[in-house]
Amino acid sequence: MSADPNCIFCKIVAGQIPSNKAYEDDEILAFHDINPWAPVHILLIPKLHVVSMADVGPEHAGVLGRMMVLAPQLMRALGVTGGFRQVINTGADGGQEVMHLHLHTFGGPRPWKRG
Ligand code: 5GP
Ligand code: ZN
Questions:
Q1: What is the pLDDT of residues 47-72, one digit of tens each?
Q2: 14 lines ligand 1 (CB under 6 A)
């Protein structure tokens, strides 16, 4: 599925819901989490609607790899020097609330609100 009209993150990709963007290219959007757990908390998403890691196949290897490579670049650009943490919640038992695959990346000096 390329976009789900009921998906919050697809609406952010389409510009129908505003976001504080950290990065954008043809396939990937990174934006600041609306309820940050750490001084820097961004979400990296494929622009294509992929529900979760449970729905990933070989065709997603490229974009997922690029998201992983992008995250440290964005942390550096956002001034994170002391390390960062990456989390992908998958499905109900994995604590996933927004059903569009996203890579949380947290950084900045501790203490953090969560994580
Ligand atoms: P999950 O629990 O699904 O892994 O994380 C979803 C994340 O999306 C949460 O950290 C939540 O704060 C964030 N989020 C939910 N809705 C919005 C939104 O409309 N804009 C932004 N920037 N973040 C959102
Ligand atoms: Zn979506």
A1: 999 999 999 999 999 999 999 999 99
A2: no
Query: Is the distance from the beta carbon of residue 1 to the nearest atom of ligand 1 less than 6 Å?
Result: no
Mean pLDDT of 27-51: 98
Q: Residue 109 Cα, ligand 2 centroid: separation in angstroms?
A: 31
Task: Give the homologous superfamily in CATH for domain 8-114.
Answer: HIT-like (3.30.428.10)
Average pLDDT over residues 71-90: 98
32 is an active site residue: no
Q: Are 67 and 103 in contact (CB under 8 A)?
A: yes
Which pTM does this prediction carry? Answer: 0.98
Domain boundaries, the chain: 8-114
CA of 111 to the centre of ligand 2 (A): 32
